[in-house]
Amino acid sequence: MDTAAAALPLEAEHEALLQFLYVCPVGVAQLDGHGTVDMMNPLAIQLLMPVAPMGVVENLFDALAGIEPDLRHRAESFTEERGAICENHRIQLSNGSVRRGQRTDPLVVALTLLRIEPDRIMAVLVDVSKQVAQERLVRQHEAWLAAIFNGVKDFAIYSLSCAGEIETWNATGERLFGLPASEVVGRGIDVLHDQREPSWNPALEAARHDGWYLREGWCSRGDGERFWSNTLISAMKLEEGEISGFCVVTRDTNERKQSLDELRRLTTTDQLTGTLNRYAFFERAAAEEMRCRRHGEWMSAIMIDADHFKRVNDVHGHAVGDRVLKSLATVCQGELRGNDVIARLGGEEFAVLLPSTDPAQALRVAERLRAQIEALEIPLPGNEVPLRITASLGIAATGGGAEEVRKIEELLEMADQALYRAKHGGRNRVEAHRLEPAAL
Amino acid sequence: MQFSEPELLAQLVAADAAAIEDAAFGIIGMNLDGVVTRYNRHESAISGLSPDRVVGKHFFSAVAPCTNNFMVAQRYEDSEELDETIDYVFTLRMRPTKVRLRLLKSAKAGRQFLAVERV
User: Fold this and answer.
1) ipTM over 0.90
2) Phi and psi dihedrals of A25, rounded to 5?
3) Which residues of B fall within a CB distance of 8 Å from A42?
4) Which of A19, A42, A44 faces B49 most closely, judged by CB atoms?
5) What pLDDT does B80 receive?
6) Which end of chain B has a smaller Cβ tally under 10 Å, C or N?
7) Under an 8 A CB cutoff, do A56 and B65 touch?
């Protein structure tokens, strides 16, 4: 009969559906509105085994009440006629264990409850244990890295895209540069550095080529303050050798730079007057002498000696003598240009080196210095009338295209001879060395 | 043939097809790889699956994945000779059903069986 013929494929179909549900790798269950299980596939019961000690789950909400007490309430207070009561709600059904030396991850299922009609709920259970374990591992790594990053005080670790734009920025960068991610991500690395610093493009190019590049320079903080830094750029290479970007570590070496600067200052300056000491003066002078030879420029020197200084010391004491020297040095330094060098060579004697300065200019400088020294008023303790001093100055010049450029020692010797004449000529005056009178 | 017969394994190894077919409890016969060779009438009735849908398939992974765990499948893998009875739940026709399982294996005979009795 027709019905019998039709019934057979239907039965077969039913069987196929049954089998489909038996092997379905996702747990599915049909519940009434209060959680009573109507139908459930094998994987669903398999997943719920930890909360079904007798192996049977009659009511899903009851079975999960010990872990998710809120579930029944959520389902029963769900006001929509149909819709998701919860979606991929994670429930940990068992703790991890170690069985026969093999670690088992905690069993975590993602539960979705869908209300189909008022008294019918479909439950879907997916085993997400592996995913959860994986996520935990990732979080652990992140926490581990974060602990390293955040523990670092004077390093910033960040990355640049292939094009040199800042790509990732974390707490280390925020701390070192005082800049939030929103202000730097997507901008070039130059934004972190002092505007007067040269472009970073050649550094990136070098890192691209050699794999890394180390550079020192001034960085600027969000508040405009500068700090001296060391920056290491490493190229991040993909397996094919292509560069995917750069990993950058910037280190604040301000303190080190400051202490080096301080050390340099201590070893190169005269403690009393703050001018260069003899050693540093000759070092600088040697460099200027080389320049002078190479470029045929003029170079001038002035010797300055405070007049009657021995008498100042004798009459007013050494403390006042020291004050005189300090004042004299200060007033001279104020008069000189950035490239000029002044040093205390000994006692009350100072030398000034004037690079790229011809004798006429040197004479004008020396005359200004003489006048400024004469105008000095040095207060004397317990005396209303301040002490006044004068100085004698001798100048000499070399270079200016002449065949023979004098060595710095010779130049100073010449200036000293002129100074001698200034002393003998009545002090408080400037004399030039006679060998170079033409330009005067 | 009785589910709790002490010599059940020996009986099953020796039994002809008809004896297994007519047993009053479910019997799944497998080779040592877990591929189903027999699926008797009783088992077919309680699971709702006819033997030709099951025979030739790997039992633990393609027929009843809910047994592919340390309680059932792992025991077959771990032993050469096996005869253990455990309480279990089968989801038969989408309804959890308490059953007793008797896990039987004789590596020597090249056969293994799963006997299923509804509680």
Assistant:
1) no
2) -80, 10
3) 64-66, 90-91
4) A19
5) 93
6) C
7) no
